[in-house]
Amino acid sequence: ALDALIAPDTKIEVITEGFRWTEGPVWNKETNELLFSDIPNNVIHSWSDEKGLRVFMKPSGYTGVADYGKEAGSNGLTFDKYGRLFLAEHGDRRISVLMKGGGKMTVADRFEGKLLNSPNDLVIHSKGAVYFTDPIYGLPKGESDPARELPFCGVFRTTFDGKITLISKDLERPNGIALSHDEKTLFVANSHKGKFNVYSFPLNEDGSAGEMNLFFDTNNLEGKGSTDGLKVDPAGNIWTTGPGGLLIVSKEGKLLGRVLTHQPTANVAFGGTDGKTVFLTANDRIMRFQRK
Hints:
- 0% of the residues lie in helices and 46% in strands.
- The chain is mainly beta and 292 residues long.
- It has a four-stranded antiparallel sheet, with no helix packed on it.
């Protein structure tokens, strides 16, 4: 089944390395380059074959003066249909958008008056709503951080009018997040030890979510790594990081195969001019390979 998606002799290539912890890969269709976060270094880099590596934004997720923990920078990145870049920012504890004329605007930073923990990853609905996860990984002292205000790690939906809705607080460490192509299902990865699972939520016409279902359980798979970032391909398969590297799961929830990376692997993105290059943020490096 995996041979239909990836040629058996496919090679994984390291395209750039020397970072501290890479995350949030997204392909910029306007400039034909990859953007990704290096969270501990509080920077977003861009990379392309033509231009190589350059700093795209620094600081990326924390604008304060005082030292702020080990994971202060931006994490998840995504574009909306207008080409605006949205960021999940650990240190500034918000979802922001980079406006076309320059400058960032806060999209969401509080729920019911309480500051978010450290927004981790995000996905945007075609109608403009932003779905995002909010675990505690970016708080300097994690779960017991004195600056923590929310007593749970949530999955949220926010709209441009500033309304923020809680979808779930039942996941211990909600992390990667993606939408099915028909936008009727929301997928969320849990990175809590012993519960490395992907869950699904049916979405209603108004964008609200139904009850959470277990979509795929990775806990019986060998290899290091947790369920973290995930994306959905045009056929509806879910490509998620997990034990061993990258897992490809059918829309019915069956494992089609794995790509072993031999590196802690945090996230995945599709890119290249044809959308068939698979980029992986893996520890201190960025890897790529081709899919069919």
